[in-house]
Amino acid sequence: MKVLICDGMHEVGLSILRAAEGIDVDVPDQPGAEEIKAMLPDYDAVIVRSRTRITAELIENAPRLKVIGRAGTGVDNIDVKAASARGALVMNTPGANATAAAEHTIAMMLALARHIPQATQSMREGRWDKKRFMGTELFHQTLGIIGLGKIGSIVADRALSMKMDVLGHDPYIIPEAAAILGVEWVPLDELLARSDFLTLHTPSTSETVRILNRETLARTKPGVRILNCARGGLIDEQALYEFLLNGHVGGAALDVFEQEPPVDSPLLKLENVIFTPHLGASSYQAQANVARAIATQIVDYLLYGIIRNAVNFPSIRPQDYEKIKPYLVLAERLGSLQGQVSTPIQRLEITYSGSDLQELPLQPLTHTVIKGLLDPILAEKVNLVNAPLLLKERQIELITTTRSESKGYTGEIAVKAISPREEFSAAGAVLQGHEIRLIRINDYRLEAELEGINLLIQNYDKPGTIGLIGTTLGSHQVNIANMHLSRTPRDKAIAIIRLDNEAPPEAIETLRRHPSIISVQQVKL
Ligand SMILES: NC(=O)C1=CN([C@@H]2O[C@H](COP(=O)(O)OP(=O)(O)OC[C@H]3O[C@@H](n4cnc5c(N)ncnc54)[C@H](O)[C@@H]3O)[C@@H](O)[C@H]2O)C=CC1
Ligand SMILES: O=C(O)CCC(=O)C(=O)O
To answer: What is the ipTM of this complex?
Structure first.
């Protein structure tokens, strides 16, 4: 496995990657876009900070790429949609640089309030200008925080310790949760109208891009000071410039920009704006944290298939991994059985029952069923990341249900495929924490191994049928490993016959032609 590191990495992360057996690491010095384009096709993983953009074009030309790691929080420099379509995971390190970004925000607020950068510059120029740099205390000033996630919450905590009054707006956080932080949750308009300092801590999304624009800036309190240590696109920079120029906005502290580095931005010329070159995460501790986190995540994924902090795949906590492993195998085999038996499928219904599955994350299992289902059908590479997208593209409706009870099993997965003419359902369970069994096919109950090459035969429950199956397979040199039978009261039966070797088409055809046999399907699990 080869890992490419584009934007440098703290030694702590490099050591983790270099110590992993089977992983080779390359750290070119600040490679440009063309260089990355030429190198990426040879790599299984790439790790970036905010400097490198991983575009759809790069991803499409990197057939080996399995995972894109972001040593940080925001993934807006990575085309996550293109990565998902190609089945590549995108992982970040949530929270690992949150303290650094929050402290940087507080530093910017204090520097802005007391004109520290301007005073430093003035002294360098030989002046002792006490009057010019009269500042504002933060004590009892109102700070409005847009985005009360990991960074916003730490900013709130530090601001409260300086006795600021803290307002917060976050549509995805309930007022009660904000109150626990000591923050008064208010609608956006109220936050704009009441804040003396206003700070942004949201990701860049279609909802948040240019959240501060001419219209919203006009609703802010006159003299407001604006801080942005989140993403440049959150503020319309031209509008901010106009509001700074006309004095409605009293000052701004910017760590991030629409274009980085900013070129010819008029903001750079304004005396009441202070800047840092995207330094929010640039503390030794944060860089060690993100490097350690992303290196461990990449090693765990490439070598052991453990997925953590993927923005395009649900995470499995390390403590759940051992327990979920056999269910992942069961999910894939049930999906694969369906993929080989039922086409075309209109609707897929997955039911999770039993106590084991109440405690485990179900989304990875659902993705795994879908992967198993589509793998035998599609020519393109299906994996856990792109499987749900491919299901959607094929217009297959997905319904998942959970039940706390499972008859006799601690964990049962049932997968029903509904096609225009028929339904086929198969259920499986994990016994004693590791043995995978097929426990139901349609109405037939059984307990069969779910692996290898199998014949799935539906027949009329008549004497001699099993003998006929054995003789026919034997005459084609096909050895039976084991056999499970089940029948319903309606004189029909089902047989799952595990074979040592594949049955040739002629053997299957001979069986199909027999009047006591309803259907024969060979499935490879
Ligand atoms: N300057 C720097 O070096 C750094 C910048 N960042 C930026 O900070 C952002 C926030 O990071 P975290 O707090 O760790 O992320 P987070 O995911 O913990 O928090 C983001 C919060 O924004 C909220 N949000 C989403 N849409 C919103 C909307 N329309 N209005 C108000 N709130 C909304 C979410 O509900 C969430 O609570 C990152 O996405 C990244 O872009 C992060 C680290 C360093
Ligand atoms: O890696 C960096 O320097 C920037 C950090 C950042 O913006 C993020 O983590 O979202």
So the answer is: 0.99
